[in-house]
């Protein structure tokens, strides 16, 4: 049987995702066919339940690790049967600018109970 795999580019902690890292991350753009968006692994993060379920399938949740908290979105999430916390999560980083205000959010690609 074929098993889907997820290619991870680097392991980071939530503390690593600080303004300096994010400024350097912008230098990697634009992402696309020849320059795929990196996927990062964050180990042993604690999801802050319950979060908000949107359209009955997407989950907006906060992730906590060693005192750092970051907002995250998980599309088509198993919100009714999530992995047991803490989680190892594969994430992409998304930047938003609205009315001159910049914010960053993690996009969860996948999560599992931490090993």
Record field, number of beta strands: 6
Q: How far do the termini sit from each other?
A: 24 Å
Shape: globular
Poorly predicted runs of 5 or more residues: none
Structural class label: mainly beta
Summarize the amount of helix as a percent range: under 10%
Could you describe the largest sheet, including whether it forms a barrel?
A: 5 strands, mixed, barrel
Instruction: Evaluate the radius of gyration.
Output: 14 Å
- Largest beta sheet: what is the strand line-up? 2-3-4-6-5
What is the H/E string?
A: EHEEEEE
Number of continuous helical runs:
1
Percent range for β-strand residues? over 45%
Structure description:
The chain is 7% helix and 50% strand. It has 115 residues and is mostly beta strands. A hairpin with a 2-residue loop joins β5 and β6 (101-113). It is globular and about 35 Å long. 17% of the residues are buried.
What is the secondary structure topology, with strand pairs?
Layout (H helix, E strand, L loop, with lengths): L9 E2 L7 H8 L13 E15 L3 E8 L2 E7 L12 E12 L2 E13 L2
Parallel strand pairs: 1-2, 4-6
Antiparallel strand pairs: 2-3, 2-5, 3-4, 5-6
Brief overview:
The protein is mainly beta.
Q: What labels would you give this structure?
A:
115 residues; mainly beta; 6 strands; 7% helix
């Amino acid at each position: 049987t074929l098993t889907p795999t997820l290619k991870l580019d680097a392991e980071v902690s939530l503390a690593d995702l600080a303004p300096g890292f994010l400024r350097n991350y912008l230098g990697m753009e634009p992402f696309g066919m020849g320059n795929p968006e990196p996927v990062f692994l964050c180990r042993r993060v604690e999801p802050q339940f319950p979060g908000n379920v949107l359209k009955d399938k997407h989950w907006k949740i906060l992730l906590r690790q060693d005192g750092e908290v970051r907002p995250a979105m998980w599309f088509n999430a198993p919100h009714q049967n999530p992995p047991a916390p803490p989680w190892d999560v594969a994430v992409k980083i998304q930047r938003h600018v609205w009315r001159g205000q910049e914010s960053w959010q993690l996009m969860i690609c996948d999560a599992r109970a931490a090993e």
